[in-house]
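RESIDUES AND SHAPES:
===
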Amino acid sequence: MPPHLFSYRKYWAECLGPAPELPMSRAEMDALGWDSCDIIIVTGDAYVDHPSFGMAVIGRVLEAQGFRVGIIAQPDWSSAEPFKVLGQPNLFFGVAAGNMDSMINRYTADRKRRNDDAYTPGNVAGKRPDRAVIVYSQRIREAFRGVPLIVGGIEASLRRIAHYDYWSDKVRRSVLLDSRADLLLFGNAERAIVEVAHRLAEGESIREIRDVRGTAFVSRQFSTQAAEGWRELDSTSIDTVTPASAPPNPYDVPQTTDCAQRPDNDVQAVRLLDSAAPEERVVIRIPDYERVKADPDLYAHASRILHKETNPHNARPLVQGHGDRDVWLNPPPIPLSTPELDQVFELPYTRLPHHSYGEAKIPAYEMIRHSVNIMRGCFGGCTFCSITEHEGRIIQNRSEDSIIREIEQIRDTSPAFTGVISDLGGPTANMWRLACKSAEIEASCRKLSCVFPGICKNLNTDQTPLIQLYRRAREVQGVKKVLIASGLRYDLAVETPEYVKELVTHHVGGYLKIAPEHTENDPLDKMMKPGIGSYDRFKAMFEKYSAAAGKEQYLIPYFIAAHPGTSDEDMMNLALWLKRNRYRADQVQTFYPSPMATATAMYHSGKNPLRPVRRNSASLATVKGLAQRRLHKAFLRYHDPENWPELRKALRRMGRNDLIGNGKVHLIPTRQPPKRHRVVDVNAGNFATQHTGLPRNPKRGRKRQPR
């Protein structure tokens, strides 16, 4: 086990005590009595001293170790001068793009530039560069040559190996090479950053720090490492890409919901690798950058291997060549224990934006200022989501007492608090304290999800502790309402009906957002999401308990258009389901290929890396053309007249003229309405109806509406 996160001997500056705010200027440093910073964090977000913001968490964790930490937030990247504002750090620069990937933050799924940025004062766009980690790192190298440079956060984490870049439509090399960073920290990086900081403070060169979990680095020295006991294993010998007969594949896991039936071959294969020479340590070499760039099949294979090596209890290091250099990935960090996570969240955050922003509103802060994060991680494994790749599949839980203390702190210190806690959650709302029943099975398992294709028999799904937390939170004096706004895993929720009753009765503010994502099995399988039957079960419970509580409440389901594995017919069937169930989506989500996600590997390669990738594997339908992406989005908004011409054309092409007409059985009407009319599709229900400004006729009421 690693040392406790807060057990290190503190650095000498600990005697100065914590700063009211981490300084962003020389004047603030002078007021604190600092002649220099030990560590400077450069971030693409505005500095908000709140545990939901990465720069604050890392900054306060390092401060608790005794280091003097400064923040450079959203610097002007047109020159190196803004990066000199705090001087040269004694130990290192840390660089992160912010809480969001800078490209996703700036561009829509259709590659159009956004007009806002929720992490910037005033919601102003354009305050961070594209690929911020690279740009900030280059400016730091210009300003201070030779200072150790460490990159981290979600942008660096998802680009730690060669990755498909949606915005340039090509495979890019590891961000380590383009940023020229000395180390890359992936995932929640408290353990790694603390160990690295102390080793640097003790005089160790950053080029000698090569054994820290959760780090990646560039090396020309693999032959030396091999001589020190490393044995290299070619990933294609584990998961062959050729169609010829192959040896047993430890990653070809049967699709069963019982973990106890699955790991045997997997564990045995790993032990066979190590049993011949137990003194050896195995590193897996995945296909190099040049090969995965040229060969989509190898790209999908590399993605599969990487995702299978993410359990910190059995993951082996990975290495990937980039020209004459190697990018080396150490295994992921061991998750934080509950006492460690409690201490991280109870550091002396002000829970406020930096005072220099004045009265400017930061939308991301306004949304979470009165929310409480109760856990980290997600074992859902949704292929389009980056949470698992970044935070891991093992849930890290805060204690109930720590959560209640934070609620009390919000009540006592926030002048804007009106008695409403806006959320108790995290990556998901209802995975708190859920884990594998067997530590041995958890340590050996390589399955990508604990809930797909069904809930694993070894997963504890009892949400009684969460019910108790909700009840205790409601009892805090001064708290009027506790809402649950994080994404809910409804397939888990229905396993504890009492939880659904508690949630619906006390913690829904009229609407509850959940994400079935689709209704058809093919796309759901590629997403690793449960079938629509799980949603139907939850909906029935939701309506039953809402009625019992005497409340009129609604479910707001979210769906994804254009996900890999989705056909035009799948989207048509989804639209018909929406109409039958009288749903009209105001906002829809189009699949966004984020770096390193499994669904992105599907999108780029046309292969399914959830199963072994072969040269003769069946191709996967991918939606890449702008016209088809627009069509899939139009099916989700079948009720919008703007989409009717496109949908008519598509339905005729698909041989489904029977869905065009003015009856209840039809999806869209035959004719377009006049543009200025208010449109109400009487067959679609009255949920989220759309108005286009038709005035009332005071004598005759409303004009007759087109169907």
